[in-house]
Amino acid sequence: EVQLVQSGGGLVQPGGSLKLSCAASGFTFSGAAMHWVRLGSGNGLEWVGRIGNKAINYATTYGESTKGRFIISRDDSKSTTYLEMNNLKIEDTAVYYCTRPGITVSGLGFDPWGQGTLVIVSS
Amino acid sequence: DIQMTQSPSSLSASVGDRVTITCRASQDISNFLAWYQVKAGQVPKLLIYSADALHSGVPSRFSGSGSGTEFTLTISSLQSEDVATYYCQKFTGTPLTFGGGTKVELK
């Protein structure tokens, strides 16, 4: 069974940092691109960014609102991807999900999703 | 960047009603369009991929159509368990932008 299990998250002050983890199982992690998506209370779903596999030199791409502050990385030996969030703003408050393009849908939709991790940015 | 615009932002319908949600892309995205259902407190669920392909396990009352810049998600007969917010997403070229969402409630 393909599974994504997240950890990390919590309460952080504006300007602070936090690192989320997403451990994968049930598929060949090293070959997969991994994505992060967030769901804010007033903003809906927002694509945060992605990291490619070794074949494309682990290339990363980010959404406009997180570019320059968030860093996505991966450790293929641990089948884990990370989202490092720096200089956090109140508007970064959201539930963060890791996900991947679905194997059974020819990579044309996100499936499965991690269980989600709540990040609250507040003083 | 390509923008994705959904309408309406919310709707109220009765059980058994036919519900249609529209998603428009600011540029041609062919059929690279996915639809998701997000229920309160739950993980997003993929419903439709490639604009009109029903994901495994999704009830057949859900259907998708369209190509290019205009797409629709239809629920043929709304059920109480369909109360949720629905999002479209372009699935070609980054950023993989989502639409703003359509909240579906029961009348």
Shape of chain B: globular
| Structural class designation of chain A | mainly beta
Question: Helix fraction of chain A?
Answer: under 10%
What's the total number of strands of chain B?
Answer: 10
In the predicted model, the low-confidence regions of chain A spanning at least 5 consecutive residues are none
Mean pLDDT of chain B: 97
Write the layout of secondary structure elements.
The complex is a heterodimer of chains A (123) and B (107).
Chain A: E1 3-7, E2 10-12, E3 18-25, E4 34-40, E5 44-51, E6 60-62, E7 70-75, E8 80-85, E9 94-101, E10 110-113, E11 117-121
Parallel strand pairs in A: 2-11
Antiparallel strand pairs in A: 1-3, 3-8, 4-5, 4-9, 5-6, 7-8, 9-10, 9-11
Chain B: E1 4-7, E2 10-13, E3 19-25, E4 33-38, E5 45-49, E6 53-54, E7 62-67, E8 70-75, E9 84-90, E10 102-106
Parallel strand pairs in B: 2-10
Antiparallel strand pairs in B: 1-3, 3-8, 4-5, 4-9, 5-6, 7-8, 9-10
